[in-house]
Design brief:
Number of domains: 1
Radius of gyration: 12 Å
Helix content: 25-40%
Order of helices and strands: EHEHEHEH
Structural class: alpha/beta
Number of helices: 4
Distance between the termini: 15 Å
Length: 96
């Protein structure tokens, strides 16, 4: 089963994910939110924990192709109309 690390803009996904039995950790819970930690460091932290990072930040797309290994990146489009579908991605365990 995949384990997820939710970027600082996605804490709203934690509670419904956990109700579905999905293992998530938020940047807030890890005390890494609002501290100006750069994206490569957030990705490295998630990878160190064996977690796929879930983000709305398009900058992570470039990191997906870096030579550094990682557990995975799920990029969620920022459209408010898609907010409900964000949970769908976690439910299906999609790994990018």
């Amino acid at each position: 089963m995949l384990r997820y690390y939710l970027d600082e803009h996605l804490p709203y996904l934690a509670k419904p994910s956990r109700k579905r039995g999905i293992d998530v950790l938020t940047t807030q819970e890890a005390e890494r939110a609002n501290r100006e930690i750069d994206d490569p460091d957030q990705l490295a932290y998630a990878s160190m924990l064996g977690r796929v990072i879930v983000t709305k930040d398009a900058d992570f797309a470039a990191l997906a192709y870096q030579p550094s290994p990682h557990a995975g990146i799920v990029w969620l489009h920022r459209s408010p109309a898609l907010r409900a579908s964000h949970q769908h991605f976690l439910d299906k365990g999609i790994k990018v």
